[in-house]
Amino acid sequence: MTMFSSLLPGQRRVAFRSGDELLAVWLAVAIGLLMLLFLAWPLLSMFATTTQGRDGSWIGLTNWLAILSEPRLRSAAGNSIALALATVALVLPLALAFAFALTRTRLYGRRLFQLIALSPMLAPSLMPAISLVYLFGNQGLLKSWLGGGSIYGSLGIVLGEVFYTFPHALLILIAALGVADARLYEAAETLGASKLRRFLTVTLPHARYGVVSAAMVVFTLVVTDFGVPKVIGGQLNVLALEAYKQVIGQQNFSKGAIIGVLLLLPAVLSFLVERRLSRRPAGQMSGRSVVYQPGRNRLRDLLLWLLCAGVTLFLLALLGVGCVAAFIKMWPYNLSFTLAHFDLDQLDGGGWQAFRNSARMAMLVTVFGTGFIFMAAYLVEKIAIPRSIAAIIRSLALLPMAVPGLVLGLGYVLCFNAPSNPLHLLYGSMSLMVLATVAHFTTTAWLTLTTALRQIDSEIEAVARSLQRPWWQTFWRVTVPMNLPALLDVARYLFVSSMTTVSCVIFLYNPDTVLAAVAVLNMDDAGDTAAAAAMATLIVASALLATLLMHGVGWWLNHRAQAWRR
Protein backbone atom coordinates (compact mmCIF):
# COMPACT_ATOMS: atom_id res chain seq x y z
CA MET A 1 0.00 0.00 0.00
CA THR A 2 2.95 2.32 0.72
CA MET A 3 4.08 1.89 -2.85
CA PHE A 4 0.93 3.49 -4.20
CA SER A 5 0.01 5.93 -1.43
CA SER A 6 1.44 8.87 -3.38
CA LEU A 7 -0.99 8.22 -6.18
CA LEU A 8 -4.13 8.95 -4.19
CA PRO A 9 -5.77 12.35 -4.72
CA GLY A 10 -5.73 13.09 -1.01
CA GLN A 11 -1.90 13.31 -1.05
CA ARG A 12 -0.78 15.87 -3.61
CA ARG A 13 2.99 15.93 -2.99
CA VAL A 14 4.98 13.24 -4.76
CA ALA A 15 8.73 12.80 -5.08
CA PHE A 16 8.64 11.71 -8.70
CA ARG A 17 6.20 12.13 -11.57
CA SER A 18 6.09 9.90 -14.61
CA GLY A 19 5.47 11.24 -18.10
CA ASP A 20 1.68 10.78 -18.00
CA GLU A 21 1.52 12.43 -14.54
CA LEU A 22 3.39 15.45 -15.90
CA LEU A 23 0.94 15.51 -18.79
CA ALA A 24 -1.92 15.68 -16.26
CA VAL A 25 -0.24 18.55 -14.40
CA TRP A 26 0.36 20.56 -17.58
CA LEU A 27 -3.19 19.85 -18.73
CA ALA A 28 -4.48 21.12 -15.39
CA VAL A 29 -2.33 24.25 -15.75
CA ALA A 30 -3.79 24.86 -19.22
CA ILE A 31 -7.34 24.42 -17.90
CA GLY A 32 -6.63 26.82 -15.04
CA LEU A 33 -5.23 29.44 -17.44
CA LEU A 34 -8.28 29.16 -19.72
CA MET A 35 -10.59 29.64 -16.75
CA LEU A 36 -8.60 32.66 -15.61
CA LEU A 37 -8.77 34.15 -19.12
CA PHE A 38 -12.48 33.60 -19.70
CA LEU A 39 -13.89 33.83 -16.18
CA ALA A 40 -11.74 36.01 -13.94
CA TRP A 41 -10.32 38.43 -16.53
CA PRO A 42 -13.70 39.70 -17.86
CA LEU A 43 -14.93 40.37 -14.32
CA LEU A 44 -11.72 42.20 -13.39
CA SER A 45 -12.06 44.27 -16.57
CA MET A 46 -15.58 45.26 -15.57
CA PHE A 47 -14.42 46.40 -12.12
CA ALA A 48 -11.55 48.36 -13.69
CA THR A 49 -13.91 50.09 -16.14
CA THR A 50 -15.97 51.54 -13.27
CA THR A 51 -13.02 53.86 -12.46
CA GLN A 52 -12.44 55.03 -16.04
CA GLY A 53 -13.88 57.89 -18.09
CA ARG A 54 -15.22 57.63 -21.63
CA ASP A 55 -11.69 58.15 -22.97
CA GLY A 56 -10.30 55.32 -20.80
CA SER A 57 -8.48 57.59 -18.34
CA TRP A 58 -8.54 56.80 -14.62
CA ILE A 59 -10.95 59.04 -12.68
CA GLY A 60 -11.34 57.08 -9.44
CA LEU A 61 -14.78 57.06 -7.82
CA THR A 62 -16.12 60.00 -9.81
CA ASN A 63 -18.39 57.75 -11.89
CA TRP A 64 -19.71 56.04 -8.77
CA LEU A 65 -20.57 59.28 -7.03
CA ALA A 66 -22.25 60.71 -10.12
CA ILE A 67 -24.30 57.61 -10.95
CA LEU A 68 -25.39 56.75 -7.43
CA SER A 69 -26.74 60.28 -7.04
CA GLU A 70 -28.99 59.96 -10.12
CA PRO A 71 -32.71 59.70 -9.25
CA ARG A 72 -33.24 57.56 -12.37
CA LEU A 73 -30.82 54.90 -11.14
CA ARG A 74 -32.22 54.89 -7.61
CA SER A 75 -35.72 54.50 -9.05
CA ALA A 76 -34.59 51.59 -11.26
CA ALA A 77 -32.92 49.90 -8.27
CA GLY A 78 -36.04 50.33 -6.15
CA ASN A 79 -38.23 48.93 -8.94
CA SER A 80 -35.95 45.91 -9.36
CA ILE A 81 -36.00 45.12 -5.63
CA ALA A 82 -39.77 45.59 -5.34
CA LEU A 83 -40.48 43.37 -8.35
CA ALA A 84 -38.09 40.70 -7.06
CA LEU A 85 -39.71 40.69 -3.62
CA ALA A 86 -43.20 40.47 -5.13
CA THR A 87 -42.13 37.54 -7.31
CA VAL A 88 -40.55 35.74 -4.35
CA ALA A 89 -43.73 36.27 -2.34
CA LEU A 90 -45.73 34.52 -5.09
CA VAL A 91 -43.30 31.85 -6.26
CA LEU A 92 -41.96 30.58 -2.93
CA PRO A 93 -45.25 29.45 -1.31
CA LEU A 94 -46.53 28.05 -4.63
CA ALA A 95 -43.32 26.13 -5.31
CA LEU A 96 -43.17 24.90 -1.70
CA ALA A 97 -46.75 23.62 -1.84
CA PHE A 98 -46.10 22.08 -5.28
CA ALA A 99 -42.92 20.35 -4.07
CA PHE A 100 -44.71 19.15 -0.93
CA ALA A 101 -47.47 17.67 -3.09
CA LEU A 102 -44.93 15.86 -5.29
CA THR A 103 -42.82 14.46 -2.45
CA ARG A 104 -44.99 14.14 0.65
CA THR A 105 -48.41 13.05 -0.69
CA ARG A 106 -49.90 10.38 -2.91
CA LEU A 107 -50.78 12.90 -5.57
CA TYR A 108 -52.44 11.47 -8.67
CA GLY A 109 -50.48 12.30 -11.85
CA ARG A 110 -47.43 13.63 -10.01
CA ARG A 111 -45.01 12.82 -12.87
CA LEU A 112 -47.13 14.72 -15.37
CA PHE A 113 -47.42 17.67 -13.00
CA GLN A 114 -43.65 17.72 -12.49
CA LEU A 115 -42.92 17.60 -16.24
CA ILE A 116 -45.29 20.49 -16.93
CA ALA A 117 -43.92 22.49 -14.00
CA LEU A 118 -40.36 22.20 -15.36
CA SER A 119 -41.35 22.93 -18.98
CA PRO A 120 -40.70 26.73 -18.71
CA MET A 121 -36.98 25.92 -18.65
CA LEU A 122 -37.29 25.01 -22.35
CA ALA A 123 -38.40 28.52 -23.31
CA PRO A 124 -36.51 31.83 -23.44
CA SER A 125 -37.48 34.31 -20.73
CA LEU A 126 -39.15 36.56 -23.33
CA MET A 127 -41.78 33.96 -24.23
CA PRO A 128 -44.06 34.45 -21.17
CA ALA A 129 -44.01 38.20 -21.79
CA ILE A 130 -45.09 37.67 -25.42
CA SER A 131 -47.88 35.35 -24.27
CA LEU A 132 -49.09 37.90 -21.72
CA VAL A 133 -49.25 40.51 -24.49
CA TYR A 134 -51.42 38.15 -26.57
CA LEU A 135 -53.70 37.45 -23.61
CA PHE A 136 -53.94 40.80 -21.83
CA GLY A 137 -52.32 43.33 -24.15
CA ASN A 138 -54.06 46.09 -26.09
CA GLN A 139 -55.57 43.48 -28.45
CA GLY A 140 -55.53 40.60 -25.98
CA LEU A 141 -58.29 38.03 -25.81
CA LEU A 142 -58.68 38.44 -22.05
CA LYS A 143 -58.03 42.18 -21.80
CA SER A 144 -61.41 42.73 -20.16
CA TRP A 145 -60.28 40.62 -17.17
CA LEU A 146 -58.05 43.48 -16.05
CA GLY A 147 -60.90 45.98 -15.92
CA GLY A 148 -59.30 49.32 -16.60
CA GLY A 149 -55.79 48.13 -15.71
CA SER A 150 -52.88 47.40 -18.01
CA ILE A 151 -50.61 44.39 -18.29
CA TYR A 152 -47.72 46.67 -19.27
CA GLY A 153 -45.75 47.46 -16.15
CA SER A 154 -45.24 45.80 -12.78
CA LEU A 155 -48.17 43.37 -13.13
CA GLY A 156 -46.92 41.95 -16.41
CA ILE A 157 -43.32 41.75 -15.19
CA VAL A 158 -44.26 39.87 -12.02
CA LEU A 159 -46.46 37.37 -13.90
CA GLY A 160 -43.76 36.80 -16.50
CA GLU A 161 -41.09 36.35 -13.85
CA VAL A 162 -43.27 33.88 -11.95
CA PHE A 163 -43.36 31.72 -15.08
CA TYR A 164 -39.61 32.11 -15.61
CA THR A 165 -38.45 31.42 -12.03
CA PHE A 166 -40.97 28.83 -10.82
CA PRO A 167 -39.14 25.72 -12.14
CA HIS A 168 -35.84 26.87 -10.63
CA ALA A 169 -37.42 27.20 -7.17
CA LEU A 170 -39.30 23.92 -7.61
CA LEU A 171 -36.14 21.92 -8.38
CA ILE A 172 -34.45 23.17 -5.21
CA LEU A 173 -37.49 22.51 -3.01
CA ILE A 174 -38.06 19.02 -4.42
CA ALA A 175 -34.50 18.19 -3.40
CA ALA A 176 -35.07 19.73 0.04
CA LEU A 177 -38.29 17.79 0.68
CA GLY A 178 -37.37 14.62 -1.20
CA VAL A 179 -36.00 12.71 1.82
CA ALA A 180 -37.29 12.70 5.40
CA ASP A 181 -36.92 10.56 8.51
CA ALA A 182 -40.26 8.94 9.34
CA ARG A 183 -39.27 8.58 13.02
CA LEU A 184 -39.51 12.35 13.54
CA TYR A 185 -43.10 12.41 12.30
CA GLU A 186 -44.01 9.35 14.39
CA ALA A 187 -42.58 11.02 17.49
CA ALA A 188 -44.47 14.27 16.78
CA GLU A 189 -47.70 12.35 16.23
CA THR A 190 -47.19 10.39 19.45
CA LEU A 191 -46.76 13.67 21.34
CA GLY A 192 -50.11 14.85 19.99
CA ALA A 193 -48.86 17.41 17.48
CA SER A 194 -51.41 18.36 14.84
CA LYS A 195 -50.63 18.06 11.14
CA LEU A 196 -50.08 21.81 10.87
CA ARG A 197 -47.77 21.79 13.88
CA ARG A 198 -45.81 18.86 12.40
CA PHE A 199 -45.39 20.83 9.20
CA LEU A 200 -44.20 23.95 11.05
CA THR A 201 -41.92 22.21 13.55
CA VAL A 202 -40.56 19.26 11.55
CA THR A 203 -40.94 19.77 7.82
CA LEU A 204 -40.06 23.46 7.47
CA PRO A 205 -37.03 23.50 9.83
CA HIS A 206 -35.42 20.61 7.97
CA ALA A 207 -36.16 22.21 4.61
CA ARG A 208 -35.00 25.70 5.64
CA TYR A 209 -31.81 25.47 3.58
CA GLY A 210 -33.79 24.71 0.42
CA VAL A 211 -36.41 27.36 1.19
CA VAL A 212 -33.84 30.10 1.71
CA SER A 213 -31.83 28.96 -1.32
CA ALA A 214 -34.95 28.97 -3.51
CA ALA A 215 -35.89 32.47 -2.32
CA MET A 216 -32.40 33.83 -3.03
CA VAL A 217 -32.26 32.18 -6.47
CA VAL A 218 -35.63 33.64 -7.46
CA PHE A 219 -34.68 37.08 -6.15
CA THR A 220 -31.39 37.06 -8.09
CA LEU A 221 -32.99 35.81 -11.32
CA VAL A 222 -35.62 38.55 -11.25
CA VAL A 223 -33.18 41.37 -10.45
CA THR A 224 -30.80 40.36 -13.26
CA ASP A 225 -33.37 39.45 -15.94
CA PHE A 226 -34.11 42.03 -18.61
CA GLY A 227 -36.05 39.90 -21.13
CA VAL A 228 -39.46 40.14 -19.46
CA PRO A 229 -39.16 43.86 -18.53
CA LYS A 230 -37.95 44.64 -22.06
CA VAL A 231 -41.08 43.17 -23.67
CA ILE A 232 -43.83 43.98 -21.20
CA GLY A 233 -42.37 46.49 -18.75
CA GLY A 234 -43.83 49.53 -20.47
CA GLN A 235 -42.31 52.70 -19.01
CA LEU A 236 -41.15 50.94 -15.83
CA ASN A 237 -37.37 50.99 -15.61
CA VAL A 238 -35.25 48.33 -13.86
CA LEU A 239 -31.52 47.92 -13.29
CA ALA A 240 -31.00 45.19 -15.89
CA LEU A 241 -32.70 47.30 -18.57
CA GLU A 242 -30.66 50.32 -17.52
CA ALA A 243 -27.42 48.38 -18.03
CA TYR A 244 -28.63 47.27 -21.48
CA LYS A 245 -29.53 50.83 -22.46
CA GLN A 246 -26.21 52.28 -21.28
CA VAL A 247 -24.07 49.75 -23.16
CA ILE A 248 -26.12 49.19 -26.33
CA GLY A 249 -27.93 52.51 -26.62
CA GLN A 250 -25.43 55.08 -25.32
CA GLN A 251 -22.10 53.21 -25.47
CA ASN A 252 -21.44 54.39 -21.92
CA PHE A 253 -19.33 51.45 -20.76
CA SER A 254 -18.30 52.99 -17.43
CA LYS A 255 -21.89 53.52 -16.34
CA GLY A 256 -22.87 50.08 -17.65
CA ALA A 257 -20.01 48.52 -15.66
CA ILE A 258 -21.15 50.23 -12.44
CA ILE A 259 -24.69 48.95 -12.93
CA GLY A 260 -23.21 45.53 -13.63
CA VAL A 261 -21.42 45.62 -10.28
CA LEU A 262 -24.69 46.61 -8.61
CA LEU A 263 -26.42 43.66 -10.29
CA LEU A 264 -23.69 41.44 -8.90
CA LEU A 265 -24.59 42.30 -5.30
CA PRO A 266 -27.79 40.17 -5.01
CA ALA A 267 -25.98 37.16 -6.42
CA VAL A 268 -23.04 37.65 -4.03
CA LEU A 269 -25.47 38.02 -1.12
CA SER A 270 -27.19 34.80 -2.18
CA PHE A 271 -23.84 33.03 -2.36
CA LEU A 272 -22.82 34.22 1.12
CA VAL A 273 -26.17 33.19 2.62
CA GLU A 274 -25.89 29.77 0.99
CA ARG A 275 -22.35 29.31 2.32
CA ARG A 276 -23.42 30.29 5.85
CA LEU A 277 -26.40 27.95 5.86
CA SER A 278 -24.34 25.07 4.46
CA ARG A 279 -22.05 25.22 7.53
CA ARG A 280 -24.94 24.46 9.86
CA PRO A 281 -25.68 20.76 10.34
CA ALA A 282 -29.13 20.18 8.93
CA GLY A 283 -28.98 16.51 8.04
CA GLN A 284 -31.96 14.47 9.17
CA MET A 285 -31.01 11.11 7.66
CA SER A 286 -28.63 8.65 9.28
CA GLY A 287 -27.90 4.97 9.07
CA ARG A 288 -30.81 4.27 11.48
CA SER A 289 -33.29 6.54 9.71
CA VAL A 290 -36.54 5.26 8.24
CA VAL A 291 -37.57 6.76 4.92
CA TYR A 292 -40.84 8.65 5.21
CA GLN A 293 -43.71 7.13 3.23
CA PRO A 294 -46.69 9.50 2.87
CA GLY A 295 -50.05 8.15 3.86
CA ARG A 296 -53.31 8.72 2.05
CA ASN A 297 -55.37 11.77 3.00
CA ARG A 298 -58.14 12.43 0.50
CA LEU A 299 -58.92 16.00 1.51
CA ARG A 300 -55.26 17.04 1.60
CA ASP A 301 -54.48 15.30 -1.67
CA LEU A 302 -57.53 16.84 -3.36
CA LEU A 303 -56.68 20.37 -2.25
CA LEU A 304 -53.05 20.00 -3.35
CA TRP A 305 -54.18 18.44 -6.64
CA LEU A 306 -56.33 21.49 -7.30
CA LEU A 307 -53.42 23.79 -6.46
CA CYS A 308 -51.05 21.87 -8.76
CA ALA A 309 -53.67 21.88 -11.50
CA GLY A 310 -54.07 25.65 -11.20
CA VAL A 311 -50.30 26.26 -11.34
CA THR A 312 -49.79 23.93 -14.33
CA LEU A 313 -52.75 25.54 -16.10
CA PHE A 314 -51.09 28.95 -15.69
CA LEU A 315 -47.76 27.62 -16.98
CA LEU A 316 -49.38 25.78 -19.90
CA ALA A 317 -51.40 28.88 -20.78
CA LEU A 318 -48.32 31.09 -21.10
CA LEU A 319 -46.32 28.40 -22.88
CA GLY A 320 -49.18 27.30 -25.11
CA VAL A 321 -50.45 30.74 -26.13
CA GLY A 322 -46.99 31.75 -27.33
CA CYS A 323 -46.74 28.58 -29.43
CA VAL A 324 -50.30 28.74 -30.77
CA ALA A 325 -50.00 32.43 -31.69
CA ALA A 326 -47.15 31.53 -34.03
CA PHE A 327 -49.68 29.68 -36.21
CA ILE A 328 -52.47 32.33 -36.08
CA LYS A 329 -52.85 34.62 -39.09
CA MET A 330 -53.71 37.84 -37.22
CA TRP A 331 -54.35 37.75 -33.50
CA PRO A 332 -57.14 38.19 -32.41
CA TYR A 333 -59.05 39.27 -35.54
CA ASN A 334 -58.30 36.33 -37.83
CA LEU A 335 -57.60 33.10 -35.94
CA SER A 336 -57.13 30.94 -39.03
CA PHE A 337 -54.09 28.67 -39.33
CA THR A 338 -50.99 29.89 -41.18
CA LEU A 339 -47.28 29.19 -41.49
CA ALA A 340 -46.48 32.65 -42.80
CA HIS A 341 -44.89 33.75 -39.53
CA PHE A 342 -42.21 31.08 -39.97
CA ASP A 343 -40.98 32.78 -43.16
CA LEU A 344 -38.39 34.40 -40.94
CA ASP A 345 -35.99 35.41 -43.72
CA GLN A 346 -38.49 38.07 -44.85
CA LEU A 347 -38.37 39.81 -41.47
CA ASP A 348 -35.83 41.76 -39.46
CA GLY A 349 -34.12 40.09 -36.54
CA GLY A 350 -31.88 37.43 -38.04
CA GLY A 351 -34.20 35.04 -39.87
CA TRP A 352 -33.53 31.33 -40.09
CA GLN A 353 -29.81 32.06 -39.88
CA ALA A 354 -30.35 33.07 -36.23
CA PHE A 355 -31.94 29.70 -35.49
CA ARG A 356 -29.12 27.85 -37.25
CA ASN A 357 -26.60 29.89 -35.29
CA SER A 358 -28.31 28.95 -32.02
CA ALA A 359 -28.40 25.27 -32.91
CA ARG A 360 -24.74 25.40 -33.91
CA MET A 361 -23.72 27.25 -30.75
CA ALA A 362 -25.75 24.89 -28.55
CA MET A 363 -24.06 21.85 -30.07
CA LEU A 364 -20.60 23.41 -29.68
CA VAL A 365 -21.32 24.37 -26.07
CA THR A 366 -22.65 20.87 -25.38
CA VAL A 367 -19.66 19.04 -26.83
CA PHE A 368 -16.88 21.41 -25.76
CA GLY A 369 -18.42 22.36 -22.41
CA THR A 370 -19.19 18.81 -21.32
CA GLY A 371 -15.73 17.56 -22.30
CA PHE A 372 -13.85 20.52 -20.82
CA ILE A 373 -15.68 20.55 -17.48
CA PHE A 374 -15.52 16.77 -17.12
CA MET A 375 -11.78 16.74 -17.79
CA ALA A 376 -11.26 19.53 -15.26
CA ALA A 377 -13.37 17.72 -12.65
CA TYR A 378 -11.52 14.44 -13.27
CA LEU A 379 -8.09 16.02 -12.85
CA VAL A 380 -9.12 17.74 -9.62
CA GLU A 381 -10.93 14.77 -8.09
CA LYS A 382 -8.94 11.76 -9.31
CA ILE A 383 -5.39 12.81 -10.25
CA ALA A 384 -2.60 13.91 -7.89
CA ILE A 385 -2.14 17.39 -9.33
CA PRO A 386 -0.66 20.12 -7.08
CA ARG A 387 -3.07 21.44 -4.46
CA SER A 388 -2.68 25.05 -5.53
CA ILE A 389 -3.74 24.28 -9.10
CA ALA A 390 -6.66 22.16 -7.91
CA ALA A 391 -7.81 24.95 -5.57
CA ILE A 392 -7.68 27.54 -8.37
CA ILE A 393 -9.70 25.36 -10.75
CA ARG A 394 -12.26 24.52 -8.07
CA SER A 395 -12.71 28.17 -7.04
CA LEU A 396 -13.07 29.37 -10.63
CA ALA A 397 -15.57 26.60 -11.39
CA LEU A 398 -17.78 27.81 -8.52
CA LEU A 399 -17.40 31.51 -9.40
CA PRO A 400 -20.23 31.66 -12.02
CA MET A 401 -22.67 30.68 -9.25
CA ALA A 402 -22.36 34.26 -7.99
CA VAL A 403 -22.23 35.98 -11.42
CA PRO A 404 -25.48 36.63 -13.33
CA GLY A 405 -25.39 36.11 -17.09
CA LEU A 406 -25.92 39.79 -17.89
CA VAL A 407 -22.96 40.75 -15.68
CA LEU A 408 -20.70 38.12 -17.23
CA GLY A 409 -21.70 39.22 -20.74
CA LEU A 410 -20.99 42.83 -19.79
CA GLY A 411 -17.56 41.79 -18.53
CA TYR A 412 -16.88 40.05 -21.83
CA VAL A 413 -17.73 43.11 -23.93
CA LEU A 414 -15.60 45.37 -21.74
CA CYS A 415 -12.68 42.95 -21.84
CA PHE A 416 -12.62 41.59 -25.39
CA ASN A 417 -13.90 44.69 -27.18
CA ALA A 418 -10.85 46.67 -26.04
CA PRO A 419 -8.46 47.19 -29.01
CA SER A 420 -5.48 46.73 -26.68
CA ASN A 421 -6.62 43.20 -25.80
CA PRO A 422 -4.58 40.61 -27.78
CA LEU A 423 -7.73 38.47 -27.96
CA HIS A 424 -9.76 41.33 -29.44
CA LEU A 425 -10.13 39.37 -32.70
CA LEU A 426 -12.48 36.98 -30.89
CA TYR A 427 -15.06 39.72 -30.28
CA GLY A 428 -18.24 39.18 -32.28
CA SER A 429 -17.27 35.62 -33.21
CA MET A 430 -19.15 32.43 -32.49
CA SER A 431 -16.13 31.15 -30.57
CA LEU A 432 -16.37 33.91 -27.95
CA MET A 433 -20.10 33.33 -27.48
CA VAL A 434 -19.45 29.61 -26.99
CA LEU A 435 -16.77 30.38 -24.39
CA ALA A 436 -19.03 32.88 -22.59
CA THR A 437 -21.93 30.42 -22.50
CA VAL A 438 -19.76 27.60 -21.17
CA ALA A 439 -18.38 29.95 -18.51
CA HIS A 440 -21.89 31.08 -17.55
CA PHE A 441 -23.21 27.54 -16.97
CA THR A 442 -20.02 25.98 -15.58
CA THR A 443 -21.04 25.73 -11.92
CA THR A 444 -24.10 23.52 -12.33
CA ALA A 445 -22.24 21.18 -14.68
CA TRP A 446 -19.21 21.14 -12.38
CA LEU A 447 -21.23 20.23 -9.28
CA THR A 448 -23.07 17.48 -11.18
CA LEU A 449 -19.90 15.87 -12.50
CA THR A 450 -17.84 16.16 -9.31
CA THR A 451 -20.69 14.55 -7.38
CA ALA A 452 -20.73 11.66 -9.87
CA LEU A 453 -16.93 11.27 -9.75
CA ARG A 454 -16.87 11.18 -5.94
CA GLN A 455 -19.18 8.18 -5.99
CA ILE A 456 -16.43 6.15 -7.69
CA ASP A 457 -13.73 4.72 -5.42
CA SER A 458 -10.32 6.32 -5.96
CA GLU A 459 -8.70 2.90 -5.66
CA ILE A 460 -9.57 2.34 -9.31
CA GLU A 461 -6.87 4.84 -10.30
CA ALA A 462 -4.40 3.26 -7.85
CA VAL A 463 -5.03 -0.23 -9.25
CA ALA A 464 -4.67 1.05 -12.82
CA ARG A 465 -1.33 2.63 -11.92
CA SER A 466 -0.15 -0.62 -10.32
CA LEU A 467 -0.89 -2.30 -13.65
CA GLN A 468 1.27 0.31 -15.42
CA ARG A 469 -1.74 1.91 -17.11
CA PRO A 470 -1.61 5.68 -17.80
CA TRP A 471 -4.35 7.84 -16.30
CA TRP A 472 -5.79 8.84 -19.65
CA GLN A 473 -6.42 5.20 -20.51
CA THR A 474 -8.28 4.67 -17.23
CA PHE A 475 -10.19 7.88 -17.86
CA TRP A 476 -11.38 6.78 -21.31
CA ARG A 477 -12.02 3.09 -20.64
CA VAL A 478 -13.35 3.17 -17.08
CA THR A 479 -14.31 6.63 -15.82
CA VAL A 480 -16.19 7.87 -18.88
CA PRO A 481 -18.40 4.74 -19.24
CA MET A 482 -19.18 4.75 -15.52
CA ASN A 483 -20.25 8.42 -15.64
CA LEU A 484 -22.24 8.39 -18.87
CA PRO A 485 -25.61 9.13 -17.17
CA ALA A 486 -24.17 12.23 -15.47
CA LEU A 487 -22.49 13.30 -18.72
CA LEU A 488 -25.82 13.05 -20.53
CA ASP A 489 -27.54 15.12 -17.84
CA VAL A 490 -24.89 17.82 -18.21
CA ALA A 491 -25.09 17.69 -22.02
CA ARG A 492 -28.88 18.10 -21.88
CA TYR A 493 -28.59 21.00 -19.44
CA LEU A 494 -25.97 22.80 -21.54
CA PHE A 495 -27.90 22.36 -24.80
CA VAL A 496 -31.20 23.64 -23.42
CA SER A 497 -29.54 26.51 -21.56
CA SER A 498 -27.60 27.54 -24.69
CA MET A 499 -30.75 27.61 -26.81
CA THR A 500 -32.68 29.77 -24.35
CA THR A 501 -30.02 32.14 -22.99
CA VAL A 502 -30.28 35.85 -23.81
CA SER A 503 -28.52 37.84 -21.11
CA CYS A 504 -25.13 36.16 -21.43
CA VAL A 505 -24.75 36.86 -25.18
CA ILE A 506 -26.78 40.04 -25.69
CA PHE A 507 -23.60 42.18 -25.91
CA LEU A 508 -21.47 39.73 -27.91
CA TYR A 509 -23.21 39.00 -31.23
CA ASN A 510 -22.91 40.70 -34.60
CA PRO A 511 -25.30 40.50 -37.61
CA ASP A 512 -23.66 37.26 -38.74
CA THR A 513 -23.76 35.53 -35.35
CA VAL A 514 -27.16 36.68 -34.01
CA LEU A 515 -28.90 33.93 -32.04
CA ALA A 516 -32.53 32.79 -31.98
CA ALA A 517 -33.26 34.04 -28.44
CA VAL A 518 -31.76 37.43 -29.34
CA ALA A 519 -33.79 37.42 -32.57
CA VAL A 520 -36.96 37.07 -30.48
CA LEU A 521 -36.03 40.30 -28.71
CA ASN A 522 -35.17 42.10 -31.95
CA MET A 523 -38.39 40.99 -33.69
CA ASP A 524 -40.51 42.12 -30.77
CA ASP A 525 -38.70 45.49 -30.80
CA ALA A 526 -39.54 45.81 -34.51
CA GLY A 527 -43.23 45.09 -33.84
CA ASP A 528 -43.17 41.58 -35.39
CA THR A 529 -44.68 39.91 -32.34
CA ALA A 530 -46.04 36.93 -34.29
CA ALA A 531 -42.63 36.25 -35.82
CA ALA A 532 -41.06 36.55 -32.35
CA ALA A 533 -43.56 33.95 -31.11
CA ALA A 534 -42.65 31.71 -34.07
CA MET A 535 -38.94 31.91 -33.24
CA ALA A 536 -39.64 31.24 -29.55
CA THR A 537 -41.71 28.22 -30.60
CA LEU A 538 -38.78 26.89 -32.62
CA ILE A 539 -36.54 27.26 -29.56
CA VAL A 540 -39.01 25.34 -27.38
CA ALA A 541 -39.42 22.60 -30.02
CA SER A 542 -35.66 22.14 -30.51
CA ALA A 543 -34.98 22.12 -26.75
CA LEU A 544 -37.78 19.60 -26.22
CA LEU A 545 -36.52 17.40 -29.07
CA ALA A 546 -32.97 17.42 -27.66
CA THR A 547 -34.30 16.63 -24.18
CA LEU A 548 -36.35 13.67 -25.43
CA LEU A 549 -33.46 12.39 -27.53
CA MET A 550 -30.98 12.52 -24.65
CA HIS A 551 -33.57 11.05 -22.31
CA GLY A 552 -33.96 8.14 -24.73
CA VAL A 553 -30.20 7.65 -24.90
CA GLY A 554 -30.02 7.79 -21.12
CA TRP A 555 -32.78 5.18 -20.82
CA TRP A 556 -30.89 2.87 -23.19
CA LEU A 557 -27.67 3.34 -21.24
CA ASN A 558 -29.35 2.63 -17.92
CA HIS A 559 -30.88 -0.59 -19.24
CA ARG A 560 -28.01 -1.81 -21.41
CA ALA A 561 -24.63 -0.17 -21.00
CA GLN A 562 -25.18 0.57 -17.28
CA ALA A 563 -26.28 -2.93 -16.30
CA TRP A 564 -23.35 -3.11 -13.86
CA ARG A 565 -25.13 -0.60 -11.60
CA ARG A 566 -27.84 -3.18 -10.91
Which key terms come to mind for this protein?
566 residues; mainly alpha; MetI-like fold; two-stranded antiparallel ribbon; 23 helices; 68% helix; 1% strand; globular; disordered N terminus
Structural description of this entry:
- The chain is mostly helical and 566 residues long.
- It has a domain at 84-235 and 262-325: Orthogonal Bundle (MetI-like fold).
- It is built from 23 helices and two strands.
- It has a two-stranded antiparallel sheet.
- Strand 1 (328-330) and strand 2 (334-337) form a beta hairpin.
- Helix 3 (71-104) packs across helix 13 (298-325).
Outline of the structure:
The chain has 566 residues and is an all-alpha fold.
Strand tally, please?
A: 2
Could you tell me the radius of gyration in angstroms? 25 Å
Mean pLDDT: 83
Encode the helix/strand succession as letters.
HHHHHHHHHHHHHEEHHHHHHHHHH
Contiguous helical run count: 23
CATH architecture of the domain at 84-235 and 262-325: Orthogonal Bundle
Under CATH, the homologous superfamily of the domain at 84-235 and 262-325 reads: MetI-like
The parts where pLDDT drops under 50 for at least 5 residues are 1-16
The shape, in one word, is: globular
Helix amount: 55-70%
Strand percentage lies at: under 5%
How can the largest sheet be summarized? 2 strands, antiparallel
CATH level-3 fold name of the domain at 84-235 and 262-325: MetI-like fold
What's the CATH class of the domain at 84-235 and 262-325, please? Mainly Alpha
- Assembly category: single chain
Strand order of the biggest β-sheet: 1-2
What separation lies between the terminal Cα atoms? Answer: 30 Å
Structural class: mainly alpha
